[in-house]
Amino acid sequence: MKQAKQLVASQRAFFYTGQTKNIEYRIHALQQLRQGIEKYQQRILDALHIDLNKSETEAYNSEIRIVLGELDFALEHLMEWAAPRAVPTSAVIPDGTSTIYPEPYGVALIIAPWNYPFQLAFGPLIGAIAAGNCAVIKPSELTPAVSRLTNDLITDIFPEEYVAVMEGEVETSTALLKEKFDYIFFTGSTGVGRIVMKAAAEHLTPVTLELGGKSPVIVHKDADLKLAAQRIVRGKFLNAGQTCVAPDYLLVHQDVHDKLLEEIGEEIQDKFGKDVMGNPGFPHIVNTRNFDRLSVFLEDGHALIGGRSDRDQLLIEPTLVGNVDWDSPVMQEEIFGPILPVMTYDDLNPLLAEIVRRPKPLALYLFTQHEELQNQVLDQVSFGGGCINDTLSHMTSHYLPFGGVGESGMGSYHGQQSFEVFSHHKSILKR
Ligand code: NAD
């Protein structure tokens, strides 16, 4: 096994040769990465099938396509992002000019989770390379086929002193976190985010933490219910609910509860068939530990839709649970599975107060045409990002920085922001 210390030392030495700062070098590296992904595409799809039972369509659309889109966007704009930025100079220094120079931090550590194991390792890597850094990727041990494939792909295209993969379990992360990195980009749970930030503090290493949390979806009485049902089902049951920005719980106005549930039931059948358990393309739960954790929630309240599960196959069918309240076990932690608790409301105000009282969500989704209500929610509730009359789509735009706030994370990336997050901005006043 590679040693963390030597690896970081060799990357730092390589960084100081200055090669990775060269824009042509970065562009060439991004092109190599693109070719590598194309060459390994079938293996990526196979690995995602082995680890999570993702169908080829789902795996391509929610992992490979997103990474390729980010790559192409970076290739198209890198020259302008990396150029020095002239800014005005204050009038008290009339003979001065001011410029901001984006520069790479040095050696970056990228720690990835298991739920989108390809996208969440390679997406941040694009930013690290574009900004001119070296990088070490630590994939999740819970998706071993993708972890191996990540190692093979990267080893095939990059020298270890530039980009390397260190596979392994928690001890590997722990060993890496003891080393001094120049930037740490972590995606995973809030609990491990705290561990990462503590370790980073030892070396005063800046961090981005892309964490999780409970993201509400609110459906008001004036919403287009068919559309809301379609978009909630897509957002909630993609990857069997194992999506950081999946709607975690549903708050629906009491007047439209029955109709919305009817629409959601129909949409689930349309999308996954009458017997989801027999649908070979429905992703499974990542392991028995998570399956058992989720099974407890199936006992919470009562199933309004679905409710069946199969431990041998690690399958849980899309399930909506009623008869729950803010104190129910299912409302105490991020669900991260295909279970959606439903609560009704009459007055939105106490509901918003309850959301604000809790940790800031990673995402929030609101279905209403009512502009005043949209503004009220945006004004009162702090959350990472989200959608009005949709779910998940905010994270697919190159123009919307993606990240959490408070316990759902700090910092953001995607599009140009991926370049910025891996860059230090050196401000120079010249006289
Ligand atoms: P996790 O925190 O358990 O693991 C993430 C990574 O950290 C893995 O590589 C793992 O090996 C490593 N790790 C685990 N324990 C560690 C420790 N004690 N010390 C150091 N490293 C350790 O998260 P997960 O279960 O892989 O992913 C699920 C979580 O990630 C959910 O909370 C989800 O919301 C969140 N998530 C967030 C985003 C986002 O973009 N904000 C995206 C995907 C997942």
UniProtKB/TrEMBL annotation:
Domain of life (superkingdom): Bacteria
Swiss-Prot/TrEMBL keywords: Oxidoreductase
Residue span(s) of domain Aldehyde dehydrogenase: 3-428
Record family assignment: Belongs to the aldehyde dehydrogenase family.
Source organism per UniProt: Paenibacillus illinoisensis
Name of the protein in its database record: Aldehyde dehydrogenase
PANTHER family referenced in this protein's UniProt entry, alphabetically: ALDEHYDE DEHYDROGENASE, ALDEHYDE DEHYDROGENASE TYPE III, ISOFORM Q
Catalytic residues, chain numbering: E210
